[in-house]
């Protein structure tokens, strides 16, 4: 069993990006600029956005954090997005999800300029991804592909089972694992809450990608020997005995499942750190595209 170490690989990627940014500075070029918009003060979202800002500083990017109150109207947020779309200094930006209930998430995603949509959520970018065209791949799926590639995990001809069909992870992963090329060329089964015989389907998988958000859902008896297991789930489980009052759990019963696998991601330290690294990579790609248009 080998750990797919997202922390280690994400640090490698950040070092590679930092080297590119240093060369940009030497040539007197503008460095990439990532902006993040957060509405309200959701604890998990704040932690995530703050780590994005720190990562930008680490690789030499410029970063802007725009904090809006939870009472922000949809119109006010759309105006802010329009300003960011028009601002030539900003190469890419993200609007942190989830948004307060008075704001239509789809409207917000649609309002973002696809050329600055470094989250890869705009239908234009999602459609290009589905058609194997060059585009921004959503950061979490992009990170999973990068892990598989850097650890030389064979995907061709394998049976991949994706658990969960969210637009952020499950659905894009099912498309990407079935695409021509590597990582890809696998036969994909996308499972969800209405899938019958889900345990039987998972037991036939060479690669399991779980993005369900149910702690310890995947048990050892559900996984075949030498399977590759990618755990995307991360849930705060209350635990009064711990200093923080909770612990972080993935979808996978790591202790027992890991004994049967050939490769597995831990939680934390697996897919999570890769997500931020790939967001930086998308921002670098956006900067290069904008430079090509100048």
Question: Explain this structure to me?
Answer:
The protein has 294 residues and is α/β, with parallel strands linked by helices. Strands 1-11-8-7-5-6 form a 6-stranded parallel beta sheet. It has a 3-stranded parallel beta sheet with strand order 3-2-4, covered by helices on one side. A two-stranded antiparallel ribbon has the order 9-10. A hairpin with a 7-residue loop joins β9 and β10. α1 runs parallel beside α10 and α6 packs across α10. The longest helix is centred in the C-terminal third of the chain and has 23 residues. It is globular and about 55 Å long.
Relevant terms:
single chain, 294 residues, alpha/beta, Rossmann fold, 2 domains, three-stranded parallel beta sheet, 10 helices, 11 strands, globular
Largest beta sheet: what is the strand line-up?
1-11-8-7-5-6
- The count of domains is 2
Give the CATH H-level superfamily of the largest domain: NAD(P)-binding Rossmann-like Domain
Helix content: 40-55%
CATH fold category name of the largest domain: Rossmann fold
Fraction of residues in β-strands: 15-25%
Per DSSP E runs of 2 or more residues, the count of β-strands stands at 11
Task: Please tally the helical runs, counting DSSP H or I stretches of 4 or more residues.
Answer: 10
Top CATH class of the largest domain: Alpha Beta
Structural class: alpha/beta
In sequence order, what are the helices and strands, one letter per element? EHEHEHEHHHEHEHEEEEHEH
């Amino acid at each position: 069993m080998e750990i797919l170490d997202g922390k280690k690989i994400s640090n490698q990627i950040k070092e590679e990006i930092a080297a590119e940014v240093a060369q940009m500075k030497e040539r007197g070029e503008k460095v990439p600029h990532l902006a993040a918009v957060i509405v309200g003060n959701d604890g998990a979202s704040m932690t995530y956005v703050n780590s994005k800002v720190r990562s930008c500083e680490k690789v030499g990017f410029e970063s802007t954090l725009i904090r809006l109150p939870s009472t922000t109207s949809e119109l006010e947020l759309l105006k802010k997005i329009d300003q960011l779309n028009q601002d030539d200094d900003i190469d890419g930006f993200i609007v942190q999800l989830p948004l307060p209930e008075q704001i239509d998430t789809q409207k917000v995603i649609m309002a973002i300029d696809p050329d600055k949509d470094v989250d890869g959520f705009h239908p234009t970018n999602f459609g290009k991804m589905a058609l194997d065209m060059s585009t921004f791949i959503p950061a979490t799926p992009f990170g999973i592909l990068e892990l598989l590639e850097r650890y030389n995990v064979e995907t061709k001809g394998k049976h991949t089972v994706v658990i969960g069909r969210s637009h952020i992870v499950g659905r894009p992963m099912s498309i990407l694992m079935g695409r021509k090329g590597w990582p890809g060329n696998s036969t994909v089964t996308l499972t969800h809450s209405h899938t019958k015989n889900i345990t039987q389907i998972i037991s036939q998988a060479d690669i399991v990608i779980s993005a369900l958000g149910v702690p310890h859902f995947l048990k050892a008896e559900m996984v075949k020997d030498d399977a590759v297991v990618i755990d995307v789930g991360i849930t705060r489980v209350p635990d009064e005995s711990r200093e923080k009052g909770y612990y972080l759990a993935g979808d996978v019963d790591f202790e027992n499942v890991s004994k049967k696998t050939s490769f597995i991601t831990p939680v934390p330290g697996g897919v999570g750190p890769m997500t931020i690294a790939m967001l930086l990579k998308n921002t670098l790609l956006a900067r290069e595209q904008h430079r090509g248009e100048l």
